[in-house]
Amino acid sequence: MTTIRQLDAPSKQLEDIHTRCFDYGWSEGVFADLLIKPHHRTYVFETDGEIVSFVVMTVVAGEGEILTIATDPDFQKQGLARMLLDQVIKTLKAEGAESLFLEVAIDNPAALRLYEACGFKKTGRRKAYYSRKDKPPVDAHILRLAL
Ligand SMILES: CC(C)(COP(=O)(O)OP(=O)(O)OC[C@H]1O[C@@H](n2cnc3c(N)ncnc32)[C@H](O)[C@@H]1OP(=O)(O)O)[C@@H](O)C(=O)NCCC(=O)NCCS
Question: InterPro entries recorded for this chain (predicted)?
Answer without folding.
Answer: AcTrfase_RimI/Ard1, Acyl_CoA_acyltransferase, GNAT_dom, YpeA/RimI_acetyltransf
